[in-house]
Every structure is written in C-alpha cells, then in structure tokens.
Amino acid sequence: MTNIYAQYPKGQKYTGTIHQIDDKLVYIRHNVKRAKHMLQVPPAWCIDKDIADLLDERGVSEICLLTDDGVYSTDLGDFFGRAFSLDRGHNPQWALELKHWRKVT
Asked: pTM of the prediction?
C-alpha cells in the first residue's frame, strides 16, 4: 500500500492509496462526497492532473472512488482516453463524465 498526496498552496493533502489487488495496482480514494467533490455540469468525477500522471507512472491500472453514493471504478487507460481537462481554481484536473464510470455498488 502506498499513500498518495497532492500539493496545494497550503501544503500536502492525502488523496488516496495504491493497493496491489490480485495482479494489478488499484488507486483507491476514500470518503468522496458527491455534493462536494463531483463536478455538476457535466456530471463528472475529477482527479488532479499531477495525481493522474503519478498513477500512470506507477503502473496503476484502475481507479476506484469510494463515495457516499457507492463505488465508482474505471480503467486508467479509459480515464485518459475519455477525460477532459479543466481548472476551476484548484489544481489542474482531468474530469471523466459520470456515464463513463462503472458504478460497482
């Protein structure tokens, strides 16, 4: 298990962990609040570009978000292939529309 941190003006913030599950590396982000963290228009989950790049460098193959609305999952390759770029005053991010995530539960 490897903890992942993002850099913000006020310092580092824990964002999630990388786990070895069977034969693949999975990034798991806990305590994701739909009302606070989900982009509303269009509905999408976002990940900081620096974090996404780090996940790619580390060989992560899947992203899982544990939200108050269930578990959302996507392959990292699909994420990069379908995500769009945005910056709304926080760190630059990649956003993947909700329709491209698999809702596990």
From this structure: 0.88
Q: What is the pLDDT of residues 34-73, one digit of tens each?
A: 988 899 999 999 999 999 999 999 999 999 999 999 999 9
Is the CA virtual torsion 32, 36, 42, 46 positive or negative? Answer: negative
Cα separation, 12 vs 62, in Å, equals: 23
Paired strand residues for 95? 46, 84
Range of the domain at 91: 2-103
Sign, CA dihedral 81-84-89-92, equals: positive
In this structure, how many other beta carbons lie within 10 angstroms of the beta carbon of residue 23? 6
How many C-beta atoms lie closer than 10 Å to residue 49's C-beta? 16
Report which DSSP code applies to 101: S
Count up the domains in the chain and report the number. 1
